[in-house]
Design brief:
Largest sheet: 2 strands, antiparallel
Strand order of the largest sheet: 1-2
Order of helices and strands: HHHHHHHHHHEEH
Shape: extended
Number of strands: 2
Radius of gyration: 23 Å
Number of domains: 3
Number of helices: 11
Distance between the termini: 30 Å
Helix content: 55-70%
Length: 189
Amino acid sequence: MQYFLDAPIGLDDLFGTSRVSLLVEMLAEARTSAERFACMERFLAANLREPRVKPAACRAAALLRQNPSLRIRHLAARLDLSERHLQRSFQAMFGMSPKQFARIARIERVWSARGQGASWADIAYTTRFTDQAHMINDFTKILGVPPAQLVRPPEVGETGSINVNMPPVEADETTNRTQALFSGGGALQ
């Protein structure tokens, strides 16, 4: 999936030149926007494919969500698959490796635990990170920002809150904003 990030992909690459040529003709003949939208809907519905569900990959994903620390070797053995087959079917189903999926599932647990008011050190321990710094690094690699930018520390007697509406800021502003918002919030940076 990362190969397609920010890459322009034409409809003819997805559906073939002949189908797209017919669509272009039909759109050109449409007189109103409503007719053009209806034409596009018919085209997309006619070319929609059912996703091919891979049961082994789905079972692997469920197991990784339950236990993100599960080693891929053990996961494959538990599912009675070779590691290579597990990797390929997982990649085909989810567009990422089982290891990347497990990392995301782990960060999901971090997010949830912090929302319930757990301390960063406790979260790092319970989610089986080596230490708090490794947890912050993984969080930042996956979400693009450190946890302190997304999660407000809990006040006394409340659970933490997720700051999903925080506007983007310049890199130098980020440090100042984080320090202002989270002064006294622990060692998180």
